[in-house]
């Protein structure tokens, strides 16, 4: 018997949003969620002096770039896992999803991170019972593609 199409309800959107907003590192960076859907996750990060890696040119630190790609990828993997585990009770689903973690992240830095706002978007490439693969992109405020990432996440 096939499952009904997965729908990201307001309740599930709130659960994903709450999960990521409660992570102190995300708060410290200043990451803000823009879009949560079954097709895409989008979030942004305003530039601030503490995030500069190259102080001579005011360029966003590479670790911040990879972190933002990872957070966007993790949110997308979590949404994919909700779909895969919709047959479970809420308690069982949350127990499994509490184990969400990054297995591998490959980042390609394409251009320097110049700008005042950086936007990361992520799409699900594959979602299995235990592992999800996500593709993420980071753009600066003028639309320049700064970096791309492919992440593998444990989600079950």
TrEMBL record:
The keyword Cytoplasm does not apply. It holds the Pfam family 4HBT. GO terms for molecular function: fatty acyl-CoA hydrolase activity. The keyword Hydrolase applies. CDD domains: PaaI_thioesterase. Its EC number is 3.1.2.20. It is an enzyme of class 3 (hydrolase). InterPro entries: HotDog_dom_sf (IPR029069), PAAI_dom (IPR003736), Thioestr_dom (IPR006683). It catalyses: a fatty acyl-CoA + H2O = a fatty acid + CoA + H(+); a long-chain fatty acyl-CoA + H2O = a long-chain fatty acid + CoA + H(+); a medium-chain fatty acyl-CoA + H2O = a medium-chain fatty acid + CoA + H(+). Keywords: Hydrolase. Residues 57-147 form the Thioesterase domain. Belongs to the YigI thioesterase family. This is Medium/long-chain acyl-CoA thioesterase YigI. It comes from Pseudomonas guineae.
């Amino acid at each position: 018997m096939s499952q009904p199409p997965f729908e990201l309800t307001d309740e599930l959107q709130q659960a994903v949003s709450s999960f990521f907003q409660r992570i102190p590192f995300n708060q410290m960076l200043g990451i803000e969620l823009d879009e949560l859907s079954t097709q895409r996750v989008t979030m942004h990060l305003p530039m601030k002096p503490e995030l500069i890696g190259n102080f001579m040119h005011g360029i966003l630190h590479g670790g911040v770039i990879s972190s933002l790609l990872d957070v966007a990828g993790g949110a997308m993997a979590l949404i994919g896992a909700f779909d895969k585990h919709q047959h479970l009770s809420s308690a069982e689903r949350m127990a499994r999803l509490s184990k969400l973690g990054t297995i591998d992240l490959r980042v390609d830095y394409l251009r320097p991170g110049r700008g005042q706002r950086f936007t990361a978007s992520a799409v699900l490439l594959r979602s299995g019972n235990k592992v999800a693969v996500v593709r993420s992109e980071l753009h600066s405020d003028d639309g320049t593609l700064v970096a791309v990432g492919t992440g593998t996440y444990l989600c079950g």
